[in-house]
Amino acid sequence: MRAMKKGKINLSGLLLSSLLDTFFKLLYFFVNLLVLIGETTRKIVTFFANLVLNFIRLIVRLVRKIRLPKFKPRKLPKVKIAKVKVRSRFFDYLSIKLRYLFFGSLLTLIILFFYQSYVFVKSLPSPQNIGKVNFPLSTHIYDRNGKLLYEVYRDQNRTPIRIEELPSYVKESTIAVEDKDFYKHNGVSPIGGILRALKDTAVEGDLQGGSTITQQLVKSSLLTSERTIKRKFREIILALWTERIFSKDRILEMYLNQVPYGGSSYGIEEAAKTYFGKPAKDLTLSEAALLAGLPQAPTLYSPYVNPNKAVSRRNDILRLMKKLKYISDDEMAQAIKEEVNIVPLETKISAPHFVYYVKSELEDFFGIKQVEEGGFKVVSTVDLDIQNKAEEILREELEKIRHLNVTNGAILITRPKSGEILAMVGSIDYHTTPFGAFNVTTALRQPGSSIKPIMYSLALDRNYTAATIIDDSAVTFQLGGGQSYKPVNYDGRFHGRVTLRLALANSFNVPAVKVLNTVGVDNFIRQGQKMGIGTWNDPSRFGLALTLGGGEVKLVDMATAYGVLANQGYKVNLTPFMKVEDTSGNIILEANNSRNKILNEGIAYIVSDILSDNFSRQLAFGSGSLLEIPGYRVAVKTGTTDEKKDNLTIGYNPEFLVAVWVGNNDNAPMNPYLTSGVTGAAPIWNKMMTYLLNNYGNGNTWYSKPENVVERTCYFGRVEYFLQGTENSVSCKDSLLKTSPTPKKD
Predict the structure, then answer these.
(1) Would you tell me which CATH number, out of the four given (3.40.50.2000, 3.40.710.10, 3.40.140.10, 3.40.50.2300), belongs to the domain 448-549+707-746?
(2) CB 490 within 8 Å of CB 562
(3) Global pTM?
(4) Which end of the chain is more exposed for a tag (fewer CB within 10 A), N or C?
(5) Residue closest to 558 by CA, chosen among 640, 420, 451
């Protein structure tokens, strides 16, 4: 009896298996038929239309072959014949109606079946869309030399790889745990998958899942995660369809790029970077097995959450790989002994202030969603070596002046000719709270006297010359409404009659205000806007103090404006990227390094000459100051605001421009003993510019004198430069006799 009962159970299981195999074979045939029809609606509609028409023709032919009874009157007694005749005709008529009803109903059901099948198939997403929907890709930002700075993503961090780049055991470990018959089935494996999964889980505790790799790929890339019979049926159809379109290796590749491995890491490449800090192609057998165990339960088997379970899961997969003869006994034993070295879970980012500046710029072009999910490759302009050096110098120099209540600083380095940003240090440490992430280079700050070169460039365009005499003496400007403005110099003294060259080189305030009063505040605002200042949008807010730094600016705008001087009158907008590529390698955005003539090249040359004149600046800064770089000629200007809340130094030569700010993010004033040009921003600027010129420069380069600039020998045998046509507007003799640069008290 027991044997018979056991035999009945086996017979029932065999029968069920045969029925399921037959069902899926029919289903597979049906899907193949649909695939062969084609994917376009036109072909599908044509197919079903022809099918229905042919069926109707067949029905019509069958109906025509049916012989219906012929009704002929018989000569019988009227009464009897009438009764028989009526009854016979009634049943004959009913028989005909039933036949037509049957065939009509059958035809209707067939038409409805094919129509509903058409609607169902039409509603299915095409497997050709795998990797195009539900598949966001991370945007990668690199430095100019190909070093990765950051990966931008929303919820899913994913980097696609090609399967031929991976070691064989990366693929085999996934196949072993997810679908060991992957290369044998046609997308759905009812016996090898569903039934065996139930049996193995209950009896043997096997690791196999119920869905094939193809089904999992379809589910994650084309369908929702709802648990319904309809969704499962769609999954099966699409899995069969997918196998008709793609090769097995291509399906496995898409799966490895699609599957979640925990947290924001999607795809084997990002998983390898997240957990082991290496690309997937460099994974060991042990590491590959650990990652293969994550997709079914990423949190449960996470080495960060449950390290013991992660190792146990890895070992089970290694044993399964050995059982399937993917690896040998020795390979399994060695992999099990290998220690799991997981990298710390942290956000990896270099040049963070710059990275987020790049991200913001890209979002203006493409939108947030496209940047976070479009998989762009961004080759930025920053040089990570220069960036790291700038961060190092800023930390070291700020530590030296911490006693002067200076807690923060910023450095911006550009190439004036191209507008490329080589380094952007927005604060001393991005990760400190509460102000570390605040980017001072893009924030509103008062520039102090560093704004004066822009004003004097306007003056030189309004018939001033470098030899023009300006009286540095007390003056009071009436502003209306009973208010007045009395400018003072940085040192609290007046210096008598000085040339424009001396006034700018020594950063005297009173001459600058007097010149601005002559050329006009509105004209100065327009000059600043043309040269790159984008924050002076309300002229009613500003007065004569604007030339002393009374209007907020951004350091990036100051770099653009100074770049006009560095480019001999041509404006080149700053750019943080060299090119942006899509996932196919097509260049979709390139830096626009167009040059627009903004300033007379002669004016730019004269201003640069004054800012590089170490002899003329000795009155304020002394000889051998930190504004000088031995062996090189550079133009440089400092700026310090009232109450010493901001201290800047900006300098350039034809190759590099360096802008430095120091202060406090909470706007607290620095110690009054901080001296512009000696402490604060100047030492940082000097050290940074020296590093650039010594390691990246082409020697002591300087500008050629433009054709519209004339030389004249003036005071003390020194040469002065004039715009052609203005050389005789000022008497060098008068300049020599009437200047009085010796400081005197108010």
Answers:
(1) 3.40.710.10
(2) no
(3) 0.69
(4) N
(5) 451
